[in-house]
Each structure stands twice: as structure tokens, then as C-alpha cells.
Amino acid sequence: MSNLILKAENISKHYRLGVIGSGSFKEDIQNFWKNTFSAGGNKTTNIEPKANDLWALKDIDFEIMKGDVVGFVGKNGAGKSTLLKVLSRITLPTTGTIRGKGRIASLLEVGTGFHAELTGRENIFLNGQILGMQKREIISKFDEIVAFSGIERFLDTPVKRYSSGMYVRLAFAIAAHLDPEILIVDEVLAVGDAEFQKKCLGKMKQVSAEEGKTVLFVSHNSQALKNLCTKAIYLEKGRLIDIGNTQDVITNYLKREQTLYLHRIYTDPDTAPGNDSIRIKRVEMHPQYLGGSNVIDIRTPLVIEFEFWYLPAEEMDLGVSITLNTVMGECIFDVDSAARQYKKGLIKGQCTIPGDFLNNGSYSINLVFVKNTSSALFEFEECLSFDVEDFRENTAWYGDWPGAVRPKFKVQLQQEEI
Amino acid sequence: MNINEKEDIAADWQWEINATQSWFKLGLRDLYAYRGLIMRFVRRDLIASYQQTIIGPVWMFLQPLLTTLIYLIVFGTFAKVSTDGVPKILFYLSGTIIWTFFFDNISGTMYTFISNAHIFNKVYFPRLIVPVSNIITQSVRLSIQLLLFVIIFLFYHIVYDKFQLSYTVILIPFLILLTAAFALGSGLLISVFTARYRDVDTFFQYILRLGMFVTPVVFPSSIVPEKYQFLFWLNPLTPIIETFRAIFFNQGAIQYNYLLLAIFNTTVLLILGLILFKRRETEVMDII
After folding, report:
1. Residues 280-319 of A with CB under 8 A from B
2. pLDDT given for residue A51 in this prediction
């Protein structure tokens, strides 16, 4: 007996973009005729590439073993959701075949089919059955579902009177009690409060580890993927880039997708950014990668080095300040050098952002050259940009870590009395 | 892995998703497998439709009665349209009950994709169970409304000593089935197109409105001019309603030839609808 539970071969999905309307009516009739009445076979041979064509998925092959927890990673639009939709039979692949064993349930959204007018009790049955549970199965798990959701008191209230939190809790509680051989989950980690997320992730881990269920899931949370998945699949522009061990695939993904501008080097002072007083020679960041990785995470110390030609027209005190901004434009810090006089020529500067200081996120750095501590000579905006990835160990909590920064100050506890 | 093992695995697969869906697969077996969900949808629709109403399910009685009252005033009193000597209440009630059953079934079915897009986009189940559950819901309503009809009928029968009930009353369930099949078949066909072009939706709303006037709902088919009679009876609803009235009101003979024609037309329509729907149910989701 093989442990192979799902096998996808040569999966492609083609979409025709553009406006659907009278302009495409003739084409529609032709396509409709072709698609509806062509005798089986491979339809794609007839599809000619056009400007407004999109291959959401192209030639995807993979195999999944029983008990695997597979994470799908990739940027928005990489085809992750399309792939889950194809696997869930919501949309048909344009080419290819997927074969599998056992019951498959998909959870692309929590609370699919909830009816606002019906009570929580009715909706447990409705949603459960839509997701593929049998009535007797729901009856036997009913108390567990209610306990998991924590909405006992509102069981006979129409769900339209629920708070959004209660709604999600109930919906997830039902989903968590699904019992298929293969479970497909899309981005559910994004909903619910911290405590509930933890509960859900715990449940997912339990389902795969103890009950040997196969889980396929998409998340943008690389930390959660790392902790839950045994295997990962990396998609980019509809193509499968990498498949294998989660750690390797995610590292590969982060490396390829990180928006890095770590080096700015200019050889000609005349065209380099700057003005009459300042010309930039180079601005660089050297991350001090840890443990052979080459991804910047929250532990990585970052060394910033810069050189500039200093061409003052008059005597002045010069200072340089480095500001770090989030992608939303909030300033995290602004540090500056002591202001003093320098001679005309090349000046070098350096600054180190220690590890275990920044929170995860996307950042950019501005260099500001200041005259006499009061006016800006030149601002080199967003000269460097980089992403800091999350890193956690020994935790079951994968929600967003709050805070502008994330220093590792010691917090000490000590038993005072017994 | 040797070849033998590979063959073993190939035989193990329990399901397969392909680029093309095969013809001649109506998905009727799925209906049985998903009967639990069908009944759940029926329950949902019945409960939900009378939430936050004061008189709740009493509306099931009130709706046909109010419609009948309107017809009674407009067509019976103002326009003085003949009812072939049948008491006006019973005449209009019989017409409106069957027409409404047809109308609710077809309009529920033709918007299958549009009104369920949010669910169809997230979960797979055979799409056919949605229109089928709608038909069952409407059948529940119809049964209650027929009960109302029977009560009024018995009133006339006992108090005025009118109408004889004959053995042909056993045809009634069959007439209901035929109406449902006609609505389902045409609704399924239309649903595939309404998903694609919203124009189709507007167009069919007019067709349906017109439909009520080429069906003997508010007038008997006897007032239709001779040269249009055949066309008029080609509409499957005409023999259905006329047979219904013939059974209860002892009006002339049942037109079995037209009834057979209606069965034939409806069967063809239903099979076409089922095939097209099954064939297109997944592809439609890419364009909705």
C-alpha cells in the first residue's frame, strides 16, 4: 500500500481577462460551441496566446503523501488560491489531472453558507453539511463544536446578531471538527483573535500529527508555515518553483521575494545623487547573517556603510542622520553623528542596527545631511530598503508581534513565596 | 518503484479531477449521496423565509388568496373574463397555485449561479442540489396551498353540492411532477446563460411575465381563437392546468394527447437542461 494520497499532473489554468460584454459575444459563441460540444480531449491546443490571456497556473506537478502538512507559499497572484480552487473542484483545470483518495474538504473561507437569519444551532448544521459533514456526524460532535466556539449562550440567537468575533469563532469551530482525509485551508490564520488563533493552530497540528490527516494550506505567515508544515510548495507567476522541506522552500522563497535594495554604488561624482555640497559614492547594508542563512530576520544585525564626496562652499558643521521608516512611512528611529567640521574630500560613515531590535516588517532608510545642526543640505530618501522576517522558537503563537520595535530586554521572574 | 506497484497505486485512486467533464453524466446519483444537504437547504429556506414576520407561515395561505382576490376583482369583476361556469375563487385559485409553483421553481433555478456565487466560489458540492432543493421547498408550499384549495373545494362540494370527484384525481401528483420538471429543465438551461450574460436575465423576466398570459391562469383556454389553439396547447402548462381543472370541475374530457405531448417536451427539455448544467456547472464559475 502506497502512502500517496494525492497526485497532480500537468495542472494548468487559463483565464481570459478583459471585459465580458457585447464585444466578446461572437467569440463567446465560438468558444462556447467549442468547449461544450468538442468531443473530450485536450482543449488547450485550440487556445491561442493573446495579450489579455493569463495562465494562473502552468504545468504544475506534485505528489502528496498521507499525513503531509503542505504549505503553499508565494506572493499575491502567484496562483496559490487558484490551485486550491482547482483542488477543491471549484474551478476546472484547463489541462491536467488530479487524482486522490478519500474525502476532501475545503475551507477557503470560514462560515461559508451561513444564513444570517438562522440561529447558531441551525447554522452549525447548515455550514457543517455544506462543508461535507453528515448530519449524524454533526450531532455526535455538536457539544464539542459548541464548547470549542464558546458561544453556548447565543446558540439560539440568529447569527446576524453575533459580533464578528463570535461569528468567526462559531464558523471556525465547525471547520475544526471536519474530519476528511484531506483538508484544504486558505488563509484562516488571518482571522480571529490571538487566543483563538492559537487554539485553531493547535487543532490543526493535532489533526495532522495524531490523526494522520493530510492538510494543504496557504498562508502569508511564514512563521506558522515553518512550524506546522512538513513540506512546502513555492509558486511564482503560476509556476512551481520549489517543492520540498519547508525550511528550505521558505528560505528560498524569502530570498527570492525579499525586496532588497542593499547596495547603492555610484562611480561618477557628477551624476551621483546629491547636490553642490554632497555627492553620494555608496550606501550599503551588510546584514550579519546568522547560522548560514541569507535571510534577514529579527535576529540579524545590520551594518550600514556609506561614503560621500563632501564639497562645501563655505565652512560649516556637518552631521549625518540616519532614519529608519516602515513601509507605512512611520519613523522607527533617527540617529545622527556629532556635528563638526570636515575637510573637502571623501567621507565614510558607518552605523550598526543590532540584532534583536527591529520588529519584523518592511523598512527603508533615509540619509539626511545636516548643516550646522539646523538645515538639511541633502536628503537621500529611501536609499536602502529591506524586509525583516519573523523568527520564533518554542512558541505556539504565530500572530503579529505588536510593537514598533522588538528588543530582547530581559524579563526576570522569580518565585517569592510558595 | 516497480511497475507492479505502480499499477496497484493507479487502481487505488478514488477520485479524479479532469480538464473536461464527460457528456451524458447527469449527476443524478450525486443527488442521492447529498440528500442530507438537500434537505438542509429546504429547511433553511423554509425557516428563513418567515423569520421576522408576524404571521409567519400563514403567508403560505395568504399569498394565493390575495392573488386570487386581485384576479377576482380585475379579471372577474371589471374585465368579466369567463371562467367557464366554475366558481371564480376556485378557478383563479387553481390557476394561480400552479402558475406560482412553476414561476417560483423556474426563477429559483435560473438564478442558481448568480445567487449562490458566494458559496459556489468556496465549496464544492454538486450544483444541481441547489435547484432541486428549491423545488422541494416550493413543493412543500404547494402542498399547503393545495390543502387550502381542497378545503374551499369541499365547501362548494358539500354546501352547493357541486362537482363530482372522479378516480382521475390520482393524476394530481403527476401533474405537479410535470410542472416541476418543466420548470427545472427550462430553468437549468437558462441558468447557464444568465450566469454569462445579465441581459438574458432581463429578457427572461419579460418572457415569464408574458408566460402568464399564454397560460390559462386567469382565463379558460376555450376563449383562445381556434387558429391559435394548437400553439396555445403546445405550452406544457396549458394541458397541466386544464387537466387539473377538468379533474376537479368536471369540465370536459382530459386532453390526453396534449398531456402526452407535454410529457415528451418536458422530458426532452429536462434531459437537455441536466446535461448542459452538469457540463457547464464548474466552468460557469470562472465567468460569473
Report:
1. none
2. 56
Contact B285 A91 (CB under 8 A): yes
Instruction: Please calculate the CA angle A18-A19-A23 and round it to the nearest 5 degrees.
Output: 110
Distance of alpha carbon A263 from alpha carbon A363, whole angstroms: 15
CB proximity A118 to B under 8 Å: yes
Mark yes or no for CB contact A101/B14 under 8 Å.
Answer: yes
| Residue A287 near residue A296, CB atoms below 8 Å | yes
ipTM of this complex: 0.87
Whole-model pTM: value is 0.76
Please report residues of A whose CB lies closer than 8 A to that of B287: 20
Q: Which of residues 217-256 of B touch A (CB under 8 A)?
A: none
What is the CB neighbour count within 10 angstroms for residue A376? 10
What count of residues does chain B have?
288
Residue B120, chain A, CB below 8 Å: the answer is yes
pLDDT tens-digit map of B129-177: 999 999 999 999 999 999 999 999 999 988 887 788 788 889 999 999 9
Asked if B36 and A101 come within 8 Å (Cβ–Cβ), the reply is no
The number of beta carbons lying within 10 Å of the beta carbon of residue B203 is: 14
What DSSP letter does each residue of A252-274 carry, written as one string?
Answer: HHHHHH---B-EEE-S-TTTSSB
Q: Which domains, ranges and CATH numbers included, belong to chain A?
A: 4-257 (3.40.50.300), 263-388 (2.70.50.60)
Instruction: For residue A7, give the C-alpha cell.
Output: 497526485
- Test B123 with A4 for CB contact under 8 angstroms: no
